[in-house]
Design the sequence.
């Protein structure tokens, strides 16, 4: 596995998240398994945003994918995530990811590039779990379509 072939997702792009763009990722990538990123997760209103943390207990839960064709798929996902432009919502960075198996890897992750001031923290670090606790099934389906 090469670092530029790996992508860690923690929100609407997770397998089973119901997002159309996430299904593209599932089709053109291989799910390597669940893992964590050392960071904090925030509810940005309809989707989450992660920021890096140096505190070991701050973990964002998600999934690691190996991309079939990163040269094509990453620009597509950059557009979905709002990367680039004058005031991008997210930026794509290489960060260390830990698979639940204990293996570590460097992978791309979309991190929040705007202020998270005033945004509620997702204490569990797990966006899908958070949604299941706060939303009705109808609302979760609507959020996943975003």
Sequence:
């Amino acid at each position: 596995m090469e670092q530029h072939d790996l992508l860690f997702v923690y929100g609407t792009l997770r397998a089973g998240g119901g997002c159309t763009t996430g299904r593209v990722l599932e089709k053109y990538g291989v799910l390597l398994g669940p893992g964590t990123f050392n960071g904090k997760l925030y509810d940005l209103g309809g989707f989450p945003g992660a920021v890096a943390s140096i505190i070991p207990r701050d973990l964002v839960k998600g999934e690691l994918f190996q991309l079939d064709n990163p040269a094509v798929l990453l620009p597509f996902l950059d557009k979905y995530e709002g990367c680039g432009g004058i005031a991008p919502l997210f930026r794509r960075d290489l960060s260390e990811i830990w698979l639940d198996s204990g293996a570590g890897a460097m992978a791309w992750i979309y991190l929040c590039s705007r202020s998270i001031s005033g945004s509620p923290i997702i204490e569990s670090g797990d966006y899908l779990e958070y949604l299941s606790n706060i939303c009705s099934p109808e609302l979760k389906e609507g959020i996943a379509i975003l």
